[in-house]
Design brief:
The protein is an alpha/beta fold and about 325 residues long. It has helices at about 55-75, 115-120, 160-170, 215-220, 235-240, 290-295, 305-325, and strands at about 5-10, 15, 35-40, 80-90, 100, 105, 115, 135-140, 145, 155, 195, 230, 245. The chain is built from seven helices and 13 strands. Helix 1 packs across helix 3 (about 160-170). Bound molecules: zinc ion.
Length: about 325
């Protein structure tokens, strides 16, 4: 099954401390957990999750974030599974807020066959030794750790950032390096990369020969906002009104950010997978475009349960009744 020839660090992504601020609502809890996150912590006494004063609250917040993410995920997808994420924390307050990713495995095949351990495990197409992913938080920033409190304009939303990072871990990562090659610096990429095009819809990697279209890549990878790289998965395009989905493509390549986020123009800059966030309440639910992208990455859309329909109909009945009364 899984032949492991090499194991490398995931493409890490992060949230920078700038721009945007969009409110999102917590998805309602689902009956069954889609993903069980087994967070394992560093043994280092200096790790921020082991801090004598704050470590316990930080761990509690992360465990809660895992459960809330699982509930949100289950409201969109039916995939289930348990994944182990190795967690570390620092006291840094510069650069990224946090970062996360999956481990990738390769059996040596060229093409889009890098196996992301977290995604494959959740989709039932592989089983990998723990941990399957990594997550790092930087606690030099001011975080709101209470899931029920609204982060102030001086606090970052610990939960929204967890949602963003865990989405990278479940597969929202391009696996493209600045030179357009894959994580092993050759013609091996993950699933995401097969959907990456320029604004005209030309694939950056030939789907038959698995060679990089260098001219397309050189122009689009640093093509700028709205004129760089795009995602052409069928479900994502359908969710975006039939249009390619723009990916973050700043004019200078940003390792870990470029191509692994949606772009910085509306409405994409208000989505969970925008590359940056401001303080205050962040985004805690997928947009339809992000749901489509994750479907393109192999996740199965959840069908609403019959009870949900019944409740909706009951709700509509109440509305109808009240309107009728008002008319009287
Ligand atoms: Zn990110």
């Amino acid at each position: 099954m899984v032949t492991t020839s090499s194991r490398i660090s995931p493409l890490l992504r992060s949230l920078a401390t700038s721009s945007l601020l969009v409110a999102g609502a917590l998805a309602s809890a689902s009956a069954q957990a889609a993903i069980t996150f087994d967070f394992t912590y560093s043994a280092s006494a200096t790790d921020a999750f082991n801090d004598a004063t704050y470590g316990s609250a930080r761990r509690t917040a992360l465990e809660t974030a895992g459960t809330l993410y699982s509930n949100m995920f289950a409201s969109h997808f039916s995939d289930t599974g348990t994944v182990t994420i190795a967690v570390t924390g620092t006291n840094n307050s510069s650069g990224a807020l946090a970062s996360a990713g999956s481990y990738y495995y390769s059996d040596g095949s060229t093409g889009f066959k890098l196996e992301d351990a977290v995604r494959n495990q959740l989709q039932g197409t592989g089983s990998y030794s723990a941990p399957q992913g990594l997550l790092t938080y930087h606690f030099g920033y001011n975080w709101e750790l209470d899931p029920n409190a609204t982060p102030s304009n001086s606090e970052f939303d610990f939960y929204a950032v967890a949602f963003h990072e865990l989405t990278h871990a479940v597969g929202f990562t391009s696996t493209l390096k600045s030179n357009g090659l894959g994580l092993f610096n050759d013609n091996r990429w993950g699933t995401f990369a097969q959907f990456v095009t320029d604004q005209a819809g030309t694939k950056v990697i030939d789907p038959n020969t698995f060679t990089l279209n260098t001219a397309v890549w050189n122009a689009a990878s640093v093509g700028g906002t709205g004129t760089g790289l795009f995602f052409d998965g069928a479900n994502a395009v359908a969710a975006n009104g039939g249009n390619l989905v723009p990916l973050y493509s700043p004019t200078t390549w940003e390792s870990g950010s470029s191509s692994s986020h949606v772009d910085e123009l509306a409405p994409f800059n208000g989505m969970m997978m925008s590359y940056s966030t401001g303080t205050g309440l962040g985004v805690r639910d997928f947009s339809e475009v992000e749901v489509g992208m994750l479907q393109d990455l192999g996740y199965t859309a959840a069908v609403p349960e019959p009870e949900t329909y019944a409740m909706l109909m009951a709700g509509l009945g109440v509305v109808g009744f009240m309107r009728r009364r008002r008319k009287d």
